[in-house]
Amino acid sequence: MMKRDHKQMFYSLCGPLMRLNGVFYRAFRAPSEGTVKVHLGPGQSNYLDGWVNVDANMFTGKCDVWADLRYPLPFRDGTVDVIYSHHVIEHLPDLPGHFAEMFRALKPGGVFRIGGPNGDSAIRKFVEGDSAWFSDFPDKRKSLGGRFENFIFCRQEHLTILTFSFLEELLSEAGFVDLVVRQPCKDTGIPQFIDQALLSKEWESTEDCPHTLLIEGRKPAAA
Ligand SMILES: C[S@@+](CC[C@H](N)C(=O)[O-])C[C@H]1O[C@@H](n2cnc3c(N)ncnc32)[C@H](O)[C@@H]1O
Question: Would 223 be classed as within a structural domain?
Fold first, then answer.
């Protein structure tokens, strides 16, 4: 994992360049016809063929658009059919702004699937005292509280705690409807976009109390 101060330096130096690149991509290259599938934050190994993969990390990973997701998304209004992101939104400082951007970029009737560390599960497991549910990543911790902190804040990489009621509130405020938690996690209500190959990349295993909170929803057709 990149050290926090190195990451801050990277975003300070490259943030403006990524922002500019996003503006250029949106103006001159962003697709506006046909089916447009957008994958935010593929990371080092989750590049999806047939999707427009957007990430800040083009050095140890692969992406199609080098852009900073703290800024407006590099897509024109109402041009995207589906947005997918997995373990990305907890890294973003302005979730209402990000959800408003997703809403703007999606076509009327467009859909999304987003997932991140499951705060509801973590709170339940903390109350139950189930230390084994939490991992030793990123820091080796013996105590339940330390392991809980690991999961929620991930050495200050994560900026917020994701619970369904919180995300439901923010996503509804952005205008999204039909919000559903996917449990079991390998379920989807949008199989035309979220196929088995994609689901197999999601590293969820504990079906009873999943580590990832996965939510799907849509922009109203008349919006
Ligand atoms: C924890 S990784 C998740 C990778 C992959 N989606 C997965 O599930 O394994 C988070 C990803 O989000 C990207 N990311 C985080 N903040 C970002 C930002 N502000 N702009 C662009 N990408 C960002 C990182 O570069 C990284 O690839």
Answer: no
